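Researcher: I'd like a candidate sequence for this fold, 193 residues long. If you have to choose between options at a position, lean toward the conservative one.
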């Protein structure tokens, strides 16, 4: 096992970690002394932000440095392991340097197209979700407006009924008061006799 590792050194704070990609002695502490910093990795963004010096990483891999599993994944995504593999094919004589570069560029183009397709899909999904939220909100608002109009109509009907009842009560009290007034002079006449 090699004593030189390509690994991540943690930085940032609790809940928001980002990493430096470093070449270090395998016995050194995780965040301690390192030989060379070759990049950074921030998993907090979407997609994760990776800044990597591919040439330095390739040099260290060719010199025997062993990447950790996470760094191996990062190097694979960035195409460093593919480039190392293609250069191994050139050394063996399977194909020449131009062919290796052609294959690597074809891989990069395919990767860029795939990333663009993923970004478009994410944007369209986000847009569809926004439209669905707006439609649901419009439906809720319409229901609320309908309920409010119904409540208002009921209140108006109740108010009209109350006014009718008040008018009817007033009319009956006036009718009741009119005969009582008519009787009052008659009793006064009787009292005068």
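Model: Candidate sequence:
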């Amino acid at each position: 096992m090699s004593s030189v590792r390509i690994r991540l050194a943690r930085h940032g704070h609790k809940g928001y970690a980002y990493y430096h990609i470093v070449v270090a002695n395998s016995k050194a502490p995780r965040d301690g002394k390192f030989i060379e910093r070759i990049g950074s990795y921030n998993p907090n963004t979407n997609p994760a932000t990776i800044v990597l010096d591919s040439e330095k990483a390739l040099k260290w891999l060719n010199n025997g440095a062993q990447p950790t599993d996470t760094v191996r994944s990062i190097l694979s995504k960035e195409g460093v392991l593919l480039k190392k593999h293609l250069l191994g094919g050139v050394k063996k004589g399977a194909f020449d340097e131009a062919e290796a570069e052609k294959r690597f560029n074809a891989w990069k183009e395919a990767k860029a197209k795939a990333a663009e397709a993923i970004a478009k899909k994410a944007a369209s999904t986000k847009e569809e979700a926004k439209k669905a939220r707006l439609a649901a909100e419009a439906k809720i608002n319409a229901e609320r407006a309908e309920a409010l109009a119904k409540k208002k109509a009921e209140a108006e009907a109740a108010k009209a009924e109350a006014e009718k009842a008040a008018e009817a009560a007033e009319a009956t009290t006036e009718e009741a008061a009119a005969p009582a007034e008519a009787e009052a002079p008659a009793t006064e006449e009787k009292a005068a006799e």
